[in-house]
Amino acid sequence: MSSGGQLRLGMIKHIFLDGTTDLRVIARHMRRDKPALFGLAIVALVVSMALFADFMAPYDPSVQDLTKRLQPPSFEHPFGLDEFGRDMLSRIIHGARVSMLVGVTVTTLALVVGMLLGVLSGYFGGKVDMLVMRVADIFLAFPGLIIAIGFVAVLGQSITNVIVSLVLVNWPGYARVVRGQVLRIRNIEYVEAAKAIGASHRSIMLGHVLPNTMSPLIVLATIGMGWAILAEAGLSFLGLGVKPPTPSWGAIISSGRTYLIQAPHIATISGLILALTILAFNLVGDAIRDALDPRMRI
Questions:
Q1: Where are the domains of the chain?
Q2: Are 213 and 240 in contact (CB under 8 A)?
Q3: Which end of the chain is more exposed for a tag (fewer CB within 10 A), N or C?
Q4: DSSP string covering the chain, please?
Q5: pTM of the predicted model as reported, rounded to 2 decimal places
Q6: What are residue 3's phi and psi, to 5 degrees?
Q7: Residue 125 contacts by C-beta under 8 Å, 6 or more apart in sequence?
Q8: Candidate CATH numbers 1.10.3720.10, 3.30.470.20, 1.10.10.10, 1.10.287.3510; the one for domain 3-61+77-297
Q9: What tens-digit pLDDT sequence spans the chain (298 residues)?
Q10: Exposed e or buried b for every residue in 103-112, given b needs 16+ CB within 10 A?
């Protein structure tokens, strides 16, 4: 086999074996971490709600019954009814679909963009590094949610614009983490050896540098999911998220604040569900961080 073929084979083994080892370490740590198991159960429940909302919701979330508006929780409607007589449990279940769609899409796109720009910045350095990092500094100089509000206000109210705005404010964090890892890795012996046998920059970045930056990215992405869900809820709370009557946790909380005295269940239950979901992602992220940190394992 040629040296190029051996290098590609080595890259595949490196990525596969390292990924498998990390997953085993994470799974073994999770089994011993009760808060992480609790968080994982909540995450699994929210994902199930998002995937199977049509089957899990007991009622159509858009059907109104004004004769029963603001009805408190009961056996027939465990989470009560909202100001239009819509079933709260059904709306919260369908609202999970919006939250997970935004969370997964924003985290994935921001991770990909930040990862690619971070690798280029750290590997090549010089003008590339300066350009990428100065743009990242501009975004990081302002609160992310404030920038997102400005983008959505300019682009218009829609779930697509929410996703675009949150990706724009979220990628710099991933880019800075990846850049820091690449600066540490790019002069290690196996990278120098790959350069010595004539491997291309693309092969080195994808096969040797990038796989060794994945551990902190997994932790950051897990916690970033909670941030994206909270940001979407915040934008919907301000009326800049998804358009009514599409259920959204933030919009439900916003509409429920008007009826805090008459029907506190509307805002309270939705707020607790949102807080519990974000807590669950943070617990899982903390557990993954501890599992991948050699000092914590010791």
A1: 3-61+77-297
A2: no
A3: C
A4: --HHHHHHHHHHHHHHHHHHHHHHHHHHHHHH-HHHHHHHHHHHHHHHHHHSHHHH-SS-TT---GGGTTPPP-SSSTT-B-TTS-BHHHHHHHHHHHHHHHHHHHHHHHHHHHHHHHHHHHHH-HHHHHHHHHHHHHHHTS-HHHHHHHHHHHH-SSHHHHHHHHHHHHHHHHHHHHHHHHHHHTTSHHHHHHHHTT--HHHHIIIIIGGGGHHHHHHHHHHHHHHHHHHHHHHHHTT-SSPTTS--HHHHHHHHGGGTTT-THHHHHHHHHHHHHHHHHHHHHHHHHHHH-HHHH-
A5: 0.82
A6: -65, -35
A7: none
A8: 1.10.3720.10
A9: 444 444 444 444 444 344 445 667 777 767 777 888 899 999 999 999 999 999 999 999 988 988 888 899 999 999 999 989 999 999 999 999 999 999 999 999 999 999 889 888 887 888 888 999 999 998 888 888 888 888 888 888 888 899 999 999 999 989 998 888 888 777 776 666 766 776 666 776 666 677 777 778 888 888 889 899 999 999 988 888 888 788 889 999 998 888 888 889 999 999 999 999 999 999 888 888 777 665 555 5
A10: bbbbbebbbe
Peptide bond into 244 cis (omega under 30): no
Which residue type occupies 39? Answer: G
